[in-house]
Write a structure and sequence with these properties.
Largest sheet of chain B: none
Number of strands of chain A: 0
Shape of chain B: globular
Number of helices of chain A: 6
Number of strands of chain B: 0
Shape of chain A: rod-shaped
Strand content of chain B: under 5%
Distance between the termini of chain A: 128 Å
Structural class of chain B: mainly alpha
Structural class of chain A: mainly alpha
CATH topology of chain B: Rna Polymerase Sigma Factor, Chain: A
Number of domains of chain B: 1
CATH superfamily of chain B: RNA polymerase sigma factor, region 2, helix turn helix motif
CATH class of chain B: Mainly Alpha
Distance between the termini of chain B: 44 Å
Largest interface: A-B, 26 and 35 residues
Radius of gyration of chain B: 17 Å
Oligomer: heterodimer
Amino acid sequence: MSKKINIEELKRDKPVYKVPDGYFEGLTSKIQERIKEEEEVAPERVWVPRLAWATPILVIAISIIYLMNVGGNQPESVEDMLTSISNEELIEYLDMTDVPTDEILASVDGAFLEEAFSNANGETDILNDINEEDLDGILDSYDLNEEFL
Amino acid sequence: MEEEFIISKIKNPETKNYGFNLIVQEYQERIYWHIRKMVIDHDDADDLVQEVFVKVWKNLDKFREDSKLFTWIYRIATNECLNFLQRKKKKFFLPINDVGQELAGKLDQSVLMDGDAIELKLQKALLKLPDKQRLVFNMKYYDDMKFDEISQVTDTSVGALKASYHHAVKKIEEFLTTD
């Protein structure tokens, strides 16, 4: 059986490892040289993060300007588009469609109609120009329920 | 040299450079040996000791005197060692044993020829310990540091350090006796 070893008995005051001759005499100046080198490099390092940020900032700025310009050219609202169409074109379009007259009238507000006819004829009541005979003829051409009569 | 004297120099902007030179002269050798025992290779230790003092210089204004100056520097050196060994393992995708074998290989060239065979065996046994346990063992066994000083350096409780050291000693003695 091997004899038990007590590591406290192995303690030595001398260094265990080999070191190049005169190493510690030159170490202080090596450290000072290294710090000097690091400080000379440091100003360049300051620019690295700045450049790293510059690209995304530039991209974001260009994107914002682009979006703002595109935003200015966005399609007009439906109302704006309709105002650019003449009444004649609108009536012609509605004639060609199968949309029932009552649906068209229901979607247009009364004040608008009154104004439109007033502008067209100079009068608010369009029936003023129609005599009773013509009116009967018009009513006959439509298949109206009794509740409207 | 008294720590208070060095601290008074580094706290004064006019004498900061002088104070730092005093730190280097006072502690460079002890820090070198602390690192060398962990990384074994002289060139690695040489590079790391310089890196440690660069960090000390850069962070000198952050030294708050809530610990001893030497403990603070020791802590920086300890972190550098552990990070270095960690990087070494990751860099070469080596399992712990292989790094241990690599360091053991360097031991044969590094240990002084006048060191007897048992000394070389002790160093090889140390390499079988986990890095942190080896670190604790070195600070207690070679540097004669008190457990509360080691506690400040490693940020570990005194109780845990005592247990760690006790286990390390048992493992090493077992290795030396049986192997």
